[in-house]
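Intended use. Records such as the HAAAP family serine/threonine permease entry shown here are meant for training and evaluating sequence-to-structure methods. They are not intended to support clinical decisions.
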Amino acid sequence: MAHSQLFSTEKWNKFDCTWVLNLFGTAVGAGVLFLPINAGMGGFYPLIIMTILIIPMTYLAHRALSRFVLSSSKPGSDITEVVEEHFGKSAGILVTLLYFFAIFPILLIYGNGITNTVDSFIVNQLGIPSPNRAILSLILIASLIGIMLMNERVMLKITEFLVYPLVFILLTLSIYLIPEWNTSISNQYPTLSECLKTLWITIPVLVFSFNHSPEISSFTQSQQREYQDLELTEKHIRKTLKGTATVLLVFVMFFVFSCVLTLSPEELATAKVQNISILSFLANKFDNPYISYFSPLVAFLAITSSFFGHYLGAREGLEGLFLKLRTDKQPISRRKLNYGAAVFFLLSLWGVTIINPSILGLIESLGGPIIAMILFIMPMYAIRKVPAMRRYQGKLSNVFVTVMGVIAISAVIYGLF
């Protein structure tokens, strides 16, 4: 009986499927609406190479981070606790601080972004005067954070419902553009050095468009609770992360290729200069009311689903910092911590959204190298140094992840200067 039960729990199931959709939702933020512009400007052939690289990059890096979380001697530990266990208290505080500041700015951007998206929709599509920004942003941000205070199953269910229409609309738009495809982009033949430079500069854009690392710690803990057994947990984590990488590749890259094949290199360059999303540019180009209605809806669904995943990561970082820096060592309930974090995020996101600063993009790009270090470099360093992770040594995949991490970090730093 025990054997048959183990066999049945090894199979792919609804719990894994729900997490695939959830991780997909975290990865597909507003960035996917700018990805075709950034990835397509270098031409068709570098885009093919990127498509081949992105699955192993996404899967192997997130698998390594998940294994790092699993390597704790205390099952159920989050990433901030595992860092302290392996690297000591000072390193634990430093990495937790970096982890928080890599994710928190993206949360600020999403709080601001969802307010701008809904405000724009009310004004442009519904033809109603712009509502009071402070009231609108408070309602939107409080609603999102309210969902995060519900239990895990409810939060996963709501994210699942958000992701279905997002997947459907991305697929529908990709197919809708097929009659408009042309070969203008494939007539570009970059030299080898141009091709390598395009790849180098675009890899960070791909990494962050497919990045679901803020949710990996919560995802790993959830899998541990569900399956109990370490080997079984690892199996389901591998299956779920492979599923996520595949779904991302199919839906996101099909959307990217469809947009890139519809527009000429000159049009992509124009969209970059205008600093508008690819859907806004397509709506203007074809004078199509459907695309102009779908554009804010996709942005709303993408930002909302991605907000949830980033909130989990930022909350983990904030609570980890609080626990590491507090002098009073009395136990504190998880519920109190969650409510305290919710109040902090509500006030900080609301304040930033009312101000509506333009510097947010810069903060996000500064968070980029930190995310790449935590996602690509830290787990590889742990495989070399942490006894609990030694069994993963000597794999070619480790070299690949390290090299890709270094490329991503160097390209982001180059882009800043």
